[in-house]
Amino acid sequence: MKVEELGPKKFAFLGGGIIAGVFIERLLNARVTEPGHVVATDINKERLEVLRSQHHIRVLESNIEGARQGDIVFLAVPPGAVQAVVTEIAPVLRDG
Fold first, then answer.
1. Overall average pLDDT of the 33-39 stretch
2. What are phi and psi of 14, to 5 degrees?
3. pLDDT tier at 94 (50, 70, 90 boundaries)?
4. Which of 45, 47, 75, 92 is most exposed, with the fewest beta carbons within 10 Å of its own?
5. 77 φ/ψ angles, rounded to the nearest 5 degrees
6. pLDDT for 67 beyond 90
7. Going edge to edge, which strands form the sheet with 58-60?
8. Res 83 pLDDT > 90
C-alpha cells in the first residue's frame, strides 16, 4: 500500500512506549497523517502525557476506545500482553 492510498485514516497505537513513539513521530514527520488523526493508549499515564505534549496527539487509557477510534490499529505492547489485548479489543475491531 502506498502512502497516498491511505487517505485520511485514523491511526491507533495500543501501547505508547518507545517504539510507538518512533512510529508516531515518523508518520507525522512524513505528513502521512496529522496529530488529530492519531490516538495512543497505555497503562502508564506519564508516558501518555509525554506523547501528548511531544506530538500533540490524543491519548486514552482504554484500549477498547483506542481500537474503536482507529482505522489502522497498531499493537505496540510487550509480547506477553498481545493475547490479552487482542482478546480485549476483538469485539470492536472491524474489517477493512
1. 97
2. -95, 105
3. confident
4. 45
5. -105, 165
6. yes
7. 58-60, 38-41, 11-14, 72-75
8. yes
How far apart are the C-alpha atoms of 55 and 35, rounded to whole Å? 7
Average pLDDT over residues 37-64: 97
Region for 92 from its dihedrals, namely left if φ exceeds 0, alpha if ψ lies in -120 to 50, beta otherwise: alpha
Q: In whole angstroms, what is the distance from residue 78 CA to residue 16 CA?
A: 11
Task: Please state, in angstroms and as integers, the Cα–Cα distance from residue 69 to each residue in 38, 66, 79, following that order.
Answer: 9, 5, 23
Assess contact for 23 and 54: CB atoms under 8 A: no
Q: Which helix (H) or strand (E) holds 40?
A: strand 38-41
The residues near 66 (Cβ < 8 Å, ≥ 6 apart) are: 12, 13, 14, 39, 40, 41, 60, 73, 89
